[in-house]
Write a structure and sequence with these properties.
It is a single chain. 15% of the residues lie in helices and 39% in strands. By secondary structure, it is an alpha+beta fold. The protein folds into 2 domains: 206 residues, Jelly Rolls (Sandwich), CATH 2.60.120; 115 residues, Jelly Rolls. Strands 1, 4, 14, 15, 16, 17, 18, 19, 20, 21 and 22 form an 11-stranded mixed beta sheet that branches. A 6-stranded antiparallel beta sheet has the order 2-3-5-12-7-10, with no helix packed on it. Strands 9-8-11 form a 3-stranded antiparallel beta sheet, with no helix packed on it.
Length: 342
C-alpha cells in the first residue's frame, strides 16, 4: 500500500448535443472531441469514464484503481463526481432517482447534485421543480401535449453568476439558453429524461422518471449560500447534504484549512492559479482540474493573486456544519436553504 498524497487528476471531455465550445479552453485541454463539449469530468471514479492520476507513484492509473492502492482511502465505490458543464441549447427535462429507488433497480446509489453558476448568457434560465398546484396527472398530460405545455408546469427563473442550485434526487430540472456551471453529484450517471424539447434520437424514460419524481415541494432555488469565514479566505457554504458538502473559496494569501478528519477532500480550480500544499507537495489548482486528498490529510491553499476554487468533502451535518453556521450568525431559516439533513 502507498501512503496517501495529493493526487492531481486529468479531466475528461464529454460531448453533448447541447454543449458548446468554451470548456476545452477553460480546462486547458489540448485534445477534445470534435462535437460540442457539454461536460468536463474533473474527478470521476465511474468505470465508464474515470479520470486518471497525473502525478506521484500512481501517475497514469485510473482513479478507481489508484484508490485501491492508497492506505486509508475511502472504500470503493468512490461516492462523488465533480464536473463543469456548458449548455448552449436546452438540456433535457429530467429527474434523478433517490438512493432507495436506484438500489431497488440494482444500482449502487441515486443522484443528488448541486450547481454553482459560473457564466450566464442573455437567455440563460433554470427549470427546477413543478409549479405550485400542478398535480402529477396534469404534468403527465402536459408531457403528452408538448414542450409549451410542459414549460407552463415547471418553475422557471433567471440566474446570475454565483447563484447556487440545489437539485436533490427526485427534482424535475433542466436549463434553457446559455449557461456554464460547476456541479457536484453522487457518483451515478442515472438520468431519466421526461422531455427533450423536440430533439429526436435520444430515449425518453417517462414512466421511470415519474416513478422517481418526488411529489413534495422542491427545495428553494436559486440560493446564495452562507458565509462561513472571512479572513485570508472567504469561505461560502453552497450546499450541505448527506452525500456531500460543497464550498466556494476566494483567497489571496495563505490559508490553512481546518482539519476535521474528513475522509477525503476534493479541490477544483475555478479562477487564477491557487496552489494546494500538502505533505511537502505543492500542486496548482487550474480551472476545471481537481486535486484529490484521498485521506484525512492536513493541507493549506495559497494564491499570490485572487484565486477561486471549489472545495468538496463529506462531513457530519449536525455536529460540524450546523454549529459552524450558527456560530457565523445565520438564522435557522437561512440555514434551511443550504443545509439539507434529510
Amino acid at each position: 500500500m502507498i501512503s496517501p498524497y495529493p493526487m492531481a487528476l486529468g479531466p475528461v471531455a464529454v460531448g453533448k448535443v447541447w454543449g458548446g465550445s468554451s470548456l476545452a479552453r477553460f480546462a486547458g485541454l489540448t485534445e477534445a472531441p470534435a462535437e460540442p463539449i457539454g461536460e468536463i469530468w474533473s474527478l470521476s471514479a465511474l468505470d465508464q469514464r474515470p479520470t486518471v492520476v497525473t502525478n506521484g507513484p500512481l501517475a497514469g492509473m485510473p482513479l478507481p484503481e489508484a484508490l485501491g492502492q492508497i492506505e486509508g482511502a475511502p472504500p470503493a465505490p468512490f461516492p462523488l463526481l465533480v464536473k463543469v458543464l456548458e449548455a448552449t441549447t436546452p438540456i433535457s427535462l429530467q429527474v434523478h432517482p433517490s438512493d432507495a429507488f436506484a438500489r431497488a433497480q440494482g444500482f449502487a446509489c441515486g443522484k443528488s447534485e448541486a450547481w454553482l453558476i459560473l457564466k450566464v448568457g442573455p437567455t440563460g434560465r433554470v427549470l427546477h421543480g413543478l409549479r405550485d398546484g400542478v398535480s402529477l396527472p396534469e404534468f403527465v398530460d402536459a408531457l403528452e401535449r408538448g414542450a409549451e405545455d410542459v414549460l407552463r408546469c415547471v418553475r422557471q427563473f433567471k440566474v446570475a453568476e454565483g447563484d447556487v442550485i440545489p437539485i436533490l434526487s427526485g427534482t424535475v430540472h433542466a436549463t434553457l439558453g446559455e449557461l456554464v456551471w460547476a456541479e457536484v453529484q453522487q457518483s451515478s450517471d442515472l438520468t431519466y429524461r421526461l422531455c427533450d424539447w423536440g430533439r429526436t434520437g435520444r430515449e425518453l424514460h417517462v414512466d421511470r422518471a415519474m416513478a422517481a419524481l418526488d411529489p413534495r415541494p422542491p427545495c428553494p432555488a436559486p440560493v446564495s449560500g452562507l458565509t462561513l469565514e472571512v479572513q485570508v479566505a472567504t469561505r461560502r457554504l453552497l450546499v450541505a447534504c448527506r452525500p456531500f458538502v460543497m464550498e466556494e473559496i476566494h483567497l489571496t494569501g495563505h490559508w490553512s484549512a481546518p482539519t476535521r478528519g474528513h475522509p477525503f477532500e476534493i479541490l477544483m480550480g475555478l479562477r487564477g492559479k491557487p496552489q494546494v500544499e500538502c505533505r511537502g507537495d505543492s500542486l496548482q489548482l487550474l480551472p476545471g482540474r481537481s486535486v484529490l486528498l484521498p485521506a484525512p490529510l492536513p493541507f493549506a491553499i495559497s494564491s499570490r493573486s485572487p484565486g477561486r476554487l471549489l472545495r468538496v468533502y463529506q462531513a457530519d451535518l449536525e455536529s460540524e456544519l450546523r454549529p459552524a453556521l450558527v456560530a457565523a450568525g445565520h438564522s435557522p431559516e437561512r440555514i434551511a436553504t443550504t443545509l439539507f439533513s434529510s
